């Protein structure tokens, strides 16, 4: 005679089909979600002895890696072999860091897909947890194909770098051209005008004293020659101040004084003791940046005071132009038809440095340029990432202009 079922056994018998049904539904839901995920959903394990395993691999394995899930399941070390040699170290480092900190593992790298004889960029993102027992870490996550966006990103970077090189080249050529024209105007025209003035003086001494009209004409031509000499001087100074030949400190001192007189703004200039040695191209570039910053102050700032500060540390040359004007609004920095700030930033970048815009204490604007002391090649990183709009990240609330 069979024993009557206990209450618990009876309950188990009635709930078992319900549990099985719920499990089936959960499995179906999981399968549907995984089928619709881009890429490969997987579990990965690294054991204490260094061996690895893929306890779960979705069917996306074949499409993403060119290897069937069952194959990779049987030979999990094949995944590492797919990774290009140059990218293997960063893969292992990222795995190690994630295992040690139990923080998510996010890695981008290239694999060789033999089935298509091609390189593919993949991104893996997974979260680790420690399995109970013998030091096994298990990650769960997805791998996706990012080849297209990665190639586009590389192309954007390359064309940005080419554009930066072209801009630097154009600026250099422009600077050389200005120097040449300034010298020619100064030497040729200036020399000829001085000769004309001397000849004119000699001729007017021989004019009959009683012919007032002729005397007056000669005086007029003489004053015309004087004005033309002044104009030649001014134009050649505008094109390239010859004082730059005496170094950046002297040139900035002169520029500060000139600007103060022309704009009627009090300008203070200070630099450390002695000259700051810089090759002429770098000195000209810094000088042009200051000129544009001062132009902007005259045009937009409504400032009454400007402070210009040049200093040098062992590694850097720092230049700050501070005004007490109305300040730059964020929208001003991205004006489509404004090229001054962009040109300044581009010049700074071509010198391997950065240009930041900040707010001066009590209002106004601070333009700060920081370049390496020695002549280093342009800062590739920035050149790559640059875009016309300013980026919002620099210490002290300032923004680096890109
Ligand atoms: N020192 C400043 N104080 C206040 N606003 C400024 C200052 N410098 C620049 N700006 C603002 O930033 C904008 C962009 O300056 P930017 O030098 O790029 O262009 P711009 O001076 O308008 O034209 P340009 O291409 O002739 O230089 C200016 O139009 C102005 O509104
Ligand atoms: Mg401007």
Short recap of the structure:
The protein has about 400 residues and is α+β, with helices and mostly antiparallel strands. It has helices at about 5-35, 60-65, 70-75, 80, 85-100, 145-205, 210-240, 250-265, 280-300, 340-350, 380-385, and strands spanning about 40-45, 50-55, 105-115, 120-130, 135-145, 265-270, 305-310, 315-325, 355-360, 365-370, 400. The strands form 2 sheets. Strands 6-7-8-10-9-11 form a 6-stranded mixed beta sheet. The protein has a 5-stranded antiparallel beta sheet with strand order 2-1-5-4-3, sandwiched between helices.
Describe this structure in words.
This protein is an alpha+beta fold. It folds into 3 domains: 36-145, PAS domain (Beta-Lactamase); 157-239; 243-400, Heat Shock Protein 90. The protein contains 11 helices and 11 strands. It has helices at 7-36, 60-65, 69-74, 78-82, 85-101, 147-206, 212-239, 248-263, 280-301, 340-350, 380-385; strands spanning 40-46, 52-57, 105-113, 118-130, 137-145, 266-271, 305-312, 316-323, 354-359, 365-372, 399-400. The strands form 2 sheets. Strands 6-7-8-10-9-11 form a 6-stranded mixed β-sheet. It has a 5-stranded antiparallel β-sheet with strand order 2-1-5-4-3, sandwiched between helices. A hairpin with a 6-residue loop joins strand 4 and strand 5. It is elongated, with a radius of gyration of 36 Å. The N and C termini lie far apart (89 Å). Residues 376-393 have low confidence and may be disordered. Bound molecules: adenosine-5'-triphosphate and magnesium ion (MG). Magnesium ion (MG) binds at residues 292, 295-296, 340.
